[in-house]
Amino acid sequence: MNVEIVSFGYLHEAPPAAHLTIDLREHFRDPHVSPDLRYKTALDVEVRRAVLDTAGIPALVEATADAVVAFTRGPSAGPVRVAVGCAGGRHRAATVAMALKTALADEDITAIVNHRDLDRPVVQR
Known about the structure:
Layout: E1 3-9, E2 20-23, H1 45-52, H2 57-72, E3 80-86, H3 92-105, E4 111-115
Helix pairs in contact: 1-3, 2-3
């Protein structure tokens, strides 16, 4: 089963087409507001820790993994694409996408992660 997880930033361009889109902008704190994290990305342990320690994120990752499992087991199951978005695509979305890949591996589902906007410049806002 092919599962693709795409992290992205809403401030760069429109969300990618997906079977399931997770919007992290309003409900979860943004590491961008911290000067110590602003110019780092989900590739940095400090960012991943800040995002994954946010109340609700672990439960959201598990619930999303459950939804992906359901998609893969449907009667017309085919490739599944999940889009995970935040404002800039460098912190929350990328971290959650990587955590989702790990959660799916625990379910014996192999996923690939593409970070559409991780390498883009920091959005000034």
